[in-house]
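User: structure tokens for this one?
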Amino acid sequence: MNILSANDAAALDAGAHTLQLANDANPLELQLDGVQRIELHFPKFTDGRAYSQAFLLRRRLGFAGEIRATGDVLIDQLVQMQRTGFSSAVLRADQDIGFAKRQFDRFAGFYQGDAVHVNPFFKEAA
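Assistant:
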């Protein structure tokens, strides 16, 4: 997962075909032709609707472009974001990027399948 500060994200945004999706929008109703990035917004870290949207975009619609988390994004959310289909996240200004990257080392494997690795661990190991 690519973890960005707000300044980094602004510098990288030039020229991308981006779709910003509202939290109450149904991803299954989208026209994704030509879209390279979809931004899903977390108005509060306790609002998890964007997790469902990301999962639908990856698993049901097969969207292969970038799915970016924006808004009230905390370090604690990053591993679950990656598992539900996010490929990048713009951290809230008070979050430490170095510490955020270490979260993925702390949780290196999972028994269950997810949006990225569909098969559960026991299917992979067999």
